[in-house]
UniProtKB/TrEMBL annotation:
<keyword id="KW-0418">Kinase</keyword>
<dbReference type="Pfam" id="PF17813">
    <property type="entry name" value="RET_CLD4"/>
</dbReference>
<keyword id="KW-0808">Transferase</keyword>
<dbReference type="InterPro" id="IPR041317">
    <property type="entry name" value="RET_CLD4"/>
</dbReference>
<feature type="domain" description="Tyrosine-protein kinase receptor Ret cadherin like">
    <location>
        <begin position="11"/>
        <end position="124"/>
    </location>
</feature>
<dbReference type="Pfam" id="PF17812">
    <property type="entry name" value="RET_CLD3"/>
</dbReference>
<feature type="domain" description="RET cadherin-like">
    <location>
        <begin position="148"/>
        <end position="259"/>
    </location>
</feature>
<keyword id="KW-0675">Receptor</keyword>
<dbReference type="InterPro" id="IPR040667">
    <property type="entry name" value="Ret_CLD3"/>
</dbReference>
<dbReference type="GO" id="GO:0016301">
    <property type="term" value="F:kinase activity"/>
</dbReference>
<protein>
    <submittedName>
        <fullName>Ret proto-oncogene receptor tyrosine kinase</fullName>
    </submittedName>
</protein>
Length: 286
């Protein structure tokens, strides 16, 4: 004969608890988009498992955001997910609720403040104060500074490059982590009073927004300008601008034109061959 120990837990035998700490620090910087989630706090309960109908399980808990600050209520929400694990205490199954902070709107890049959110979780079936767990999210919002990591960027393009050929990409520092706001890029001539002839050389290169909205993509805009002997290495200014606040940053880009494209007059090599009655005649230069 073998004896088996059977543990029967009534639904109000165990209070909800946190494993370790009931608070977490959240830093919001580059990801400022609506719907983004931050932090994670867990509440455990050995009286509940996911076998219970989801609606009934959720109705057993009364959850309340305790902050009265209007800005906090308009900006943040708390969401929870409901899972199950095997408890280290006696091996019984227990529920695990994962609470996360959620942005209800996009945050401006200039937003700079620290706030806290107290969130009360109460097990309505457990009598007494032990049925309540208090969670806290300590939130720090850092401003985003739009700037380039380097003062000058250098690119090389062949004089034989065709129109729309890619020259290179450029972006402000940390641009790949940006979410919830956009940065646009413009290409400018260092001296706007430049005369017409040199100004035509600057039409060789242009810039457009990358599909992900984070990069500026340099491309060949005028292949004839690339081939012109009068156009030498080019220096531009790239201006990056954040969409909402119009915050700006700028950097220089230097374009080196690779290869030589001599004109016919300069090289004296453009001889056009005509054949008439099997006689070859070389036409003189214009």
């Amino acid at each position: 004969k073998t004896s088996l120990d059977v543990f029967v837990d009534d639904e109000d035998d165990n209070a909800p608890y946190v494993n370790g700490t009931g608070s977490t620090d959240v830093i919001i910087s580059f990801n400022r988009t609506k719907g983004a989630t931050f932090g994670a706090l867990f509440v455990f309960d050995r009286d509940l498992t996911t076998i219970f109908p989801k609606d009934q399980s959720h109705n057993r808990y009364v959850e309340t955001l305790l902050n009265n600050d209007t800005w906090v209520k308009e900006t943040f929400d708390i969401k929870s997910t409901f899972n199950e694990r095997k408890s280290p205490y006696g091996g019984v199954r227990e529920s695990v609720r994962d609470y996360q902070l959620v942005l209800k709107k996009n945050l401006c890049v200039t937003e700079n403040r620290s706030v806290y959110l107290d969130y009360q979780v109460n097990d309505a079936t457990y009598p007494g104060l032990d049925g309540t767990v208090l969670l806290r999210f300590n939130v720090t919002i850092l401003p985003v500074i739009i700037h380039f990591a380097n003062i000058t960027h250098k690119f090389t393009v062949s004089r034989r490059a065709s129109v729309y050929a890619k020259v290179g990409s450029i972006c402000v520092e940390n641009c790949l982590q940006f979410d919830g706001f956009s940065v646009t890029y413009q290409l400018e001539v260092p001296d706007r009073n430049t005369s017409a002839d040199p100004l035509s050389c600057y039409s060789a290169i242009s810039i457009t927004q990358a599909p992900d909205g984070k990069w500026g993509m340099l491309y060949v805009n005028n292949s004839e300008a690339l081939r012109s002997p009068s156009c030498q290495d080019l220096l531009y200014i790239v201006v990056a601008q954040e969409g909402l606040t119009q915050q700006e940053a700028s950097t220089q880009i230097q374009i080196t034109l690779d290869g030589s494209m001599k004109s016919c007059r300069a090289s004296r090599c453009c001889l056009v061959q005509k054949t008439d009655n099997k006689k070859s005649v070389s036409l003189p230069e214009a």
